[in-house]
Write a structure and sequence with these properties.
The chain contains 3 helices and 9 strands. It is of the alpha+beta class. The chain has one domain. The chain has a 5-stranded mixed β-sheet, with no helix packed on it. β6 and β7 form a beta hairpin.
């Protein structure tokens, strides 16, 4: 009876070993994880009344291992959007810090804020109606030194992001 139980246990082990997840772990690549982009253009304002902060609520939680990149629409040149990565710093003519956009994030939201000197004196063009994109990148890609994360277009290309599928978040 012991031999029969042992043979049965061995067959069960072989059968259970056949259940696998369909991922290529040869190079630690997770083939079913994709990057995505969320755009926030309503109510991204930095005013005294909101302590110069804006909270961007994500459409769904991210994984703790994901990288979160934030880009601010800095202008349009020849019909092309110019995206600048945060933190983004602006200086006085003498080289001292004037103000900067920065952020903190969790897996459900990002808190974007202004810091610097005389925030109320900063032009409304820098404080109201800002457009911000949140780019979610699977964390293991951060080890790839070939991607210039400061360059929004390089990130979009590297992660094969279809810009027509950007989620426009209304808050």
């Amino acid at each position: 009876m012991k031999k029969f139980t042992l043979v049965l246990a061995f067959i069960a082990m072989l059968t259970l070993k056949g259940c696998t997840v369909n991922e290529d772990n040869t190079n630690n690549i997770d083939n079913d994880t994709i990057s995505e982009v969320w755009e926030y253009s309503n109510n991204v304002n930095f005013l005294f009344s909101n302590n110069y902060t804006s909270t961007l609520i994500f459409p769904h939680p991210t994984f703790n291992s994901d990288m979160i990149l934030l880009y601010r629409l800095d202008g349009v040149v020849n019909g092309q959007d110019i995206w600048k990565i945060m933190p983004q710093t602006f200086y006085f003519n003498d080289g001292t810090l004037d103000f900067r956009y920065d952020f903190d994030f969790t897996n459900t939201e990002a808190l974007v804020y202004l810091e610097g000197f005389d925030l109320e004196g900063i032009s409304l063009a820098f404080r109201t109606n800002q457009v911000v994109r949140v780019v979610v990148v699977p964390g293991f890609f951060g080890k790839n030194n070939k991607i210039d994360f400061k360059d929004y277009k390089a990130v979009v290309k590297a992660f094969d992001i279809d810009e027509s599928k950007i989620i426009k978040v209304q808050q």
